[in-house]
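FW: tagging you since you asked about this chain on Friday. Here's the raw sequence from the shared folder, copied in full. Didn't touch anything.
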Amino acid sequence: VSTQSTGSQVSIMSRQFFVGGNFKMNGNTESLTVIAERLAKKDNDLDSSVEVVIAPPACYISSINSLVSGKDTVNVSAQNTHESEKGAFTGEISCSMAVDCGAKYVIMGHSERRQNKGESNQQKHKK
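HL: got it, structure written out here
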């Protein structure tokens, strides 16, 4: 909890806690569905003050999003996006494609993308 002073008034601003899981290139329809269904259960013991974000491989974003879409505190993230909106970039997805599949977030600046693909801060900022 933090405080913010506005003249003679002091308001208390609470922080939203956030926990995320990046599946990288792991999981399949069955295993990711089990996890998403557990997170989406109305009677699960998730703290409502914590936002849970799961980042499945891109091919599962839409199906996982459809399973958790009724749960306000559970959202889906893309693992990466390309800096271009469209074009001849085989295997890449754009931000608008990720959003169209239901992603509300995207993870940027992966150490393995920097190491294995040579991505720079400049490229990350373009995304």
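FW: Helices lie at 29-40, 61-68, 95-100, 111-117, 121-126.
HL: agreed, and The mean pLDDT is 88.
FW: great, closing this out.
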